[in-house]
Amino acid sequence: MKRGYTLLELTVSMAILAVIVPVALRLMFTADRALGPGEAQATATGGQAQLLEDLARDTNSASSVSVKDGWLTVSSAGLRIVYSWVPQQGATVRTVMTPGGETRAYPGVRASFAIQGRLVRAEVQGSAGGLKTAFAMRNL
Q: Would you say residue 16 has pLDDT above 90?
């Protein structure tokens, strides 16, 4: 009755592991390096998309909009929302100005705003690139 492994079996299995482990580690580190920049760009693009989605929702229901010192203030039905650049965070921040209001940061995304008639023009810059767009204010 055989109760263990022979020295030859252990030597062969260690030789196989000595070949497989370095190859597997190299593949894992190569994949990690390849995905790193893509992850950062996806995060930045996601932040820009979320900012534009929130801005569209807020301006569509706005009863008044103003821009002062680079800050966009959107008001509707007793609700006031401010979009501002916060250098300490390196982010554009959306703040709902009510007690217990929500604050949402868009890291690495810098937005600037201008009003032209019934349009809110937004220029969004981030590590994923920049874009310009406009939102129509329906309730004005």
A: yes
Domain holding 58, by residue range, is 7-136
Q: Is residue 120 a part of any domain in this protein?
A: yes
Would residue 1 count as lying in a domain? Answer: no
**SS3 state at 11:** helix
Number of domains, the chain: 1
Within-domain flag for 2 = no
**pLDDT tops 70 at residue 63:** yes
pLDDT tens-digit series, residues 96-131 = 988 788 899 988 889 999 998 888 899 988 876 788
Question: CA 30, CA 18: separation in Å to the nearest integer?
Answer: 19
